[in-house]
Design a protein that fits this description.
The protein has one helix spanning about 35-50, and strands at about 20-25, 30-35, 60, 70. By secondary structure, the protein is α+β, with helices and mostly antiparallel strands. It has one domain. This is Small CPxCG-related zinc finger protein. InterPro entries: DUF7569.
Length: about 70
């Protein structure tokens, strides 16, 4: 078992705990990072935040002549 450093924070991490993130495009590897569990969790959170669509609820306002606005969620 080796304790090579995490590519993100530089702390030694045992092979059993390390996670490797690989970026491939059209079957060609673009990047690979060996991460400790904490940096891997940060990477997952960042990926999820940046890749998920905006989750804010859209609101539509209908106008009905002289009546009050109707907001539909």
């Amino acid at each position: 078992m080796t304790d090579d450093p995490c590519d993100a924070c530089g702390e030694p991490v045992a092979d059993a705990l390390a996670r490797t993130v690989r970026l491939t495009v059209d079957r060609s590897q673009i990047d690979a990072q060996r991460l400790c569990p904490e940096c891997f969790a940060d990477w997952i959170h960042r990926y999820k935040t940046e890749m998920e669509p905006d989750t804010e609820t859209q609101q539509f306002v209908e106008e009905d002549g002289d009546a009050d606005d109707i907001i539909i969620d």
